[in-house]
Amino acid sequence: MTPAARIQTAIELLDTIITAARTKGAPADRILGNWFKANRFAGSKDRRAIRELVFAAIRACGPVPQSGRAAVLRLAQNDPALADLFDGSRYGPAPIRADEPVAQPGIAPDWLGERLRLSGIEGEALAALLDRAPLDLRVNSLKADRAALALPEPAVPTVAPSGLRLPPGTQIEQWPAYRDGLIEVQDTGSQLACLAVGASDGETIVDLCAGGGGKTLALAAAMANGGRLIASDTDRGRLSRLAPRAARAGATNIETRLLDPGREPEALADLAGQADAVMIDAPCSGTGTWRRNPEARWRLDEGELARLTALQSRLLDLGMSLLRPGGRLIYVTCSLLDEEGAHQFDAFLARSPAMRAAMLDLPAGSARGAGVRLTSHAAGTDGFFIARADRT
Question: Mind listing the pLDDT tens digit of every residue in the chain (392 residues)?
């Protein structure tokens, strides 16, 4: 592909991504992956260049752009070489007109930027949300030891006990250590959230919102495959990915339960008052994950945020009902908004006299309300709120 053709392809892909963001369709990564599979003529260099251009354009725009062309023109305003490729050549973009729209810059739509500011995220902390994220790994202690593990490329230990860090974009899928389940891709912040659970052999632990099971696998390793680990979720597709991942990782103490939305207590009735620990990695706005999913900020609106906070509140109450006396609840969101983090947890404590906030001793993060907040700027991780409460 010519450089101009790559730009036109990026513009067309951005049009699809913008439409998907407005309609809650497929994420950008999936849209790109599907296009690359269907267009084999694009070589590896083409795919890399197109991907980088698409995500650079997404990061450069604050509100949802008018079009993919407007998004790329935002980049071209500060890149004369890119602007020169709008030359009208075959398969390339049409020349730039003086009066055509250019996407607005910024970190987020105005309403969301104000919510972040009120939550103490501004300045460098706000800008860091759109940095490129490194590739973090978790060494699977069921099969390997971080100190003794040899990888094809040098990795730096992170503050997580089993964490390693590689540069952004490192391709590990063909590494023997990955294929054999010695390592898992997992952000250091996610690893610290699992560390907060304090999971140990012999316990009964519920991962209430397990999704694809990344945190479940970390908990299984912490439990050394002992005890009972229940991974539940309402998303059949995501939960179905856990079994092959668990087999690769050598995790054998995991049970999965598919929940019916709105009727979760029925599927978990046998666990009521039985769990030593419940982890609630609650569905949230994902404001802490923009380094990896920058178009997520185009998908969120105030109505969706209200729906998410109501769901989080209900999940906290459900999690508490599963705990035995003395059991612990760990609440996690990959959000930096206080209404999903510190304020949400404070409201839970206020209406739950049987629960007492417990101090977390994590190797990164700062106090926020009754919990700990991790930010990309200060901790070098995805953004998280993590809190613990014990049942009396």
Answer: 999 999 999 999 999 999 999 998 999 999 999 999 999 889 989 999 999 999 999 999 999 999 999 999 999 999 999 999 999 999 999 999 999 999 999 998 889 999 999 999 999 999 999 999 999 999 999 999 999 999 999 999 999 999 999 999 899 999 999 999 999 999 999 999 999 999 999 999 999 999 999 999 999 999 999 999 999 999 999 999 999 999 999 999 999 999 999 899 999 999 999 999 999 999 999 999 999 999 999 999 999 999 999 999 999 999 999 999 999 999 999 999 999 999 999 999 999 999 999 999 999 999 999 999 999 999 999 999 999 999 99
- Reduced to 3 states (helix: H, G, I; strand: E, B; else coil), residue 334 is coil
Q: Cα–chain-centroid distance for residue 124? A: 20
Q: What are the φ and ψ backbone dihedral angles of 115, each rounded to 5 degrees?
A: -65, -40
Residue 47 CB coordination number (10 Å): 18
Residue 157, in any domain of the structure: no
Of 85, 106, 127, the last residue of a domain is 106
Residue with tokens 């067309």, as numbered in its chain: 12
Q: Which residues are catalytic?
A: 334
Beta strands in 71-190 (DSSP E): 135-139, 156-157, 163-166, 183-185
| 145: in domain | no
Total length of the chain? 392
- At which residue do the structure tokens 């099969």 appear? 143
Range of the domain at 63: 3-106
Q: What is the DSSP string of 169-220?
A: T---TT-HHHHTTSEEE--HHHHHHHHTTT--TT-EEEETT-TTSHHHHHHH
**Within a domain: residue 176?**
no
Q: How many angstroms separate the CA atoms of 286 and 296, rounded?
A: 7
**Cα 246 to Cα 214: distance, rounded to the nearest angstrom:** 9
